[in-house]
């Protein structure tokens, strides 16, 4: 176990008392959580949050709230160094099913995204850089239907990075990918978070090992019990279910999966998810 030197600076994402009911059913209750810019000496170190919870508990709903696509019933989401209330388009969001325009080539899909943030000449340059970086340059003229699942996934991540400001939500980025593709998406996530100090990726996943290995922070969405032991309606991310992996000496290790402390911690997390 190696602990790295690190420090925290300004907030990048702040959730304050976020609750929502859908069809009169409480889904999320009083969520308070924050992501701070983590810094390491002589490095550009972005942030990676692993976000877990049982199926159907409300992870995708919280993603839509964090992306500004639906308003919470109560509470606020603030993003960026300016900590502005989130509006659609500020946060990149690769949804569980990620949409690309079927009638545009990969290159043109990315250009549409880039032009939302950059002037036309700049946008083209950025698109070329991302195509190269994500190994997609040979496929630039293909239409989405001709891309493999992994290529689509990389294209969707590139698309969201091109048009958003630093913060990007990946909902189930590893599902349906083979082991080699999973390695590739992992590599891209690491690359994204070393490209800019402020880049922050929130990964929703049921793949606890892969995601925990990438993360420096974890959130576990679950139900709480009241004093009488009854389940409180609406899921939340309680303070004891917000883990700081940097503090635990489990962040930013090349081969953390091989460490016994990591395996123990993953078992602990799995048990917490089972019991939540
Ligand atoms: N638009 C909606 N209207 C009503 N209920 C909804 C709506 N969207 C989601 N829900 C409900 O909110 C709950 C949480 O759904 P959500 O999709 O966030 O789960 P999840 O944690 O992402 O699950 P999974 O891991 O299976 O993707 C579910 O009970 C779902 O039926
Ligand atoms: Mg979901």
UniProtKB/TrEMBL annotation:
SUPFAM superfamilies: P-loop containing nucleoside triphosphate hydrolases (SSF52540). It comes from the Bacteria. InterPro entries: AAA+_ATPase, ABC_transporter-like_ATP-bd, ABC_transporter-like_CS, ABC_transporter_ATP-bind, P-loop_NTPase. Coiled coil: none annotated. Residues 13-248 form the ABC transporter domain. Keywords: ATP-binding, Nucleotide-binding, Transport. Transmembrane segments: none annotated. One of its GO terms (molecular function) is ATP binding. This is ATP-binding cassette domain-containing protein. It comes from Hymenobacter mellowenesis.
